[in-house]
Amino acid sequence: IKAAYDLSMKLTIIFNSCKCKEEAFKKLALWYNEVEAAGIDSFRSVARSIETHYLTILNYFNNRSTNASAEAFNAKIKSFRASARGVRDINFFLFRLQKIYA
């Protein structure tokens, strides 16, 4: 458990302390090596995700912004659509969305 906690805290520190892409890339590579050495399966899946999407993940370090606002708005649209029990008239649905969330 201690090894898993340490790995998670090291990843948190990388995201909180790194100011540029190059520094983050180096530290993520070192963290990836530690995950491989630890042999914890759940961290291997996280490491594979980071390895697959590292270019997009490193973009976070440019201006420290995420797509969280877009995801939150998407969730609101899905919730609104579910409360309306589906959509028949798309134009009217978009009109209502505009009036509620604009």
Q: Could you list some keywords that capture this structure?
A:
102 residues; mainly alpha; 2 domains; 6 helices; elongated
Q: Indicate the structural class.
A: mainly alpha
Please summarize the sheet with the most strands: none
**What is the overall silhouette?**
elongated
* Residues in helices, as a percent range: over 70%
End-to-end Cα distance: 47 Å
Number of domains: 2
Average predicted confidence as pLDDT: 87
Order of helices and strands: HHHHHH
Stretches where pLDDT falls below 50 for ≥5 residues? none
Number of helices: 6
Beta-strand content: under 5%
Total beta-strand segments: 0
Radius of gyration: 20 Å
Annotate the secondary structure layout:
Elements: H1 2-17, H2 21-38, H3 41-52, H4 54-63, H5 68-83, H6 90-101
Helix pairs in contact: 1-2
Structure, described:
The protein is mainly alpha-helical and 102 residues long. 82% of the residues lie in helices and 0% in strands. It is built from 6 helices and no strands. It has helices spanning 2-17, 21-38, 41-52, 54-63, 68-83, 90-101.
Short description:
With 102 residues, this protein is mostly helical. It has helices spanning 2-17, 21-38, 41-52, 54-63, 68-83, 90-101. Helix 1 runs antiparallel to helix 2.
